[in-house]
Design a protein that fits this description.
The protein is α/β, with parallel strands linked by helices and 299 residues long. The protein is 32% helix and 19% strand. It has a 9-stranded mixed β-sheet with strand order 1-2-3-5-4-8-11-9-10, with helices on both faces. The chain has a two-stranded antiparallel ribbon with strand order 6-7.
């Protein structure tokens, strides 16, 4: 082969190689994506409803924070969050998984305009301190009985109380009952709170329910702006159906950096549902509350 032919062959090889590279290289990673842009993984074959899951972020220790989606609605998004206090309030994660089971089996309860998202464990590092695995397969007998360990499991992998890390009256040194706890080094300093913040801002839910324990009640949210009419309405809807008492605010002790109060500050209706104790999921009560909200937002 003469020199001219060799040069032509090399040019052809380079052009073909570049074409293959640009055809198959992966897309750039974009951490700020909407629900529709995020990579979703099928939970099962799609039948009556669209069932997908999205990893919305990672915990301090690198565990996935997963959002599960039900329904095909495009106009009304409802968000339910459990496990913000990890293993200390493990029953809030378990009731979230139980409600997911209900949504998957009772697809007819989801109105055509509604899409339900459940984030069962916002603090997977805290839950992992007392149970493994931290998925829907864990059962109450799997929980460690060590009370000191349970208390430490309230916090994330940096020993921060995630429900003190949001933007409403945030303080670095926060309170939990009569104890001092860390609210983080700054508002949204923790990857878990940043993940839920980004998800909410990208998807704008019509209403948010966050599960806690233990006081037994439904609490409205506000951040020095009063309880909005919509928040007051969904407080009553959930309370009436579940038979939990309804309250305008949580006033057992001063709370800073609370998630639902940040949501109120952001103009998103939100309620805190506090289970009665730290062991029972009270599924029947919370299933009734969920169904009532679905019916309330049916269009």
């Amino acid at each position: 082969m003469n020199t001219k032919n060799t040069i032509i062959a090399l040019i052809v090889i380079i052009i073909v190689g570049l074409g293959i590279y640009f055809s198959f290289r992966p897309s750039p990673n974009n951490s700020e994506v909407t629900d529709s842009q995020a990579t979703t993984t099928p939970m099962a074959e799609l039948s009556e409803i669209d069932k997908t899951k999205t990893v919305i972020g990672k915990s301090v220790e690198g565990r996935d924070i997963v959002a599960y989606h039900y329904g095909v609605g495009t106009t009304t998004r409802l968000l339910f969050v459990g496990g913000i206090h990890g293993g200390y309030e493990w029953n809030t994660a378990l009731v979230s998984y139980e409600l997911m089971d209900y949504l998957e089996k009772a697809s007819s309860t989801i109105p055509a305009n509604v899409r339900v998202t459940v984030i069962p464990v916002l603090n997977p590092d805290g839950l992992a301190k007392i149970v493994s695995p931290t998925t829907a397969s864990f059962l109450p007998p799997d929980i460690s009985p060590d009370s000191a360990l349970l208390e430490s499991a309230r916090f994330n992998g940096r020993n921060v109380d995630l429900n003190r890390n949001f933007d409403c009256d945030w303080q670095e040194s926060a309170k939990w009952q009569n104890k001092s706890v860390s609210g983080g080094t700054a508002v949204f300093s923790e990857p878990e709170s940043r993940a839920i913040k980004q998800y909410i801002e990208n998807n704008t839910p019509a209403a948010v329910v966050v599960y806690y324990s233990a006081a037994g009640g439904v609490y409205s949210s506000s951040c020095h702006n009063g309880v909005s009419p919509e928040t007051s309405a969904i407080t009553g809807v959930y309370a009436n159906a579940s038979k939990y008492p309804a309250y305008k605010n949580f006033d057992f002790y001063a709370i800073t950096g609370d998630m639902t109060n940040w949501l109120a500050k952001s103009g998103i209706p939100a309620i805190s549902v506090l289970l009665t104790n730290h062991t029972d999921t009270e599924l029947a009560k919370n299933q009734a509350g969920l169904k009532a909200l679905l019916n309330y937002y049916k269009r």
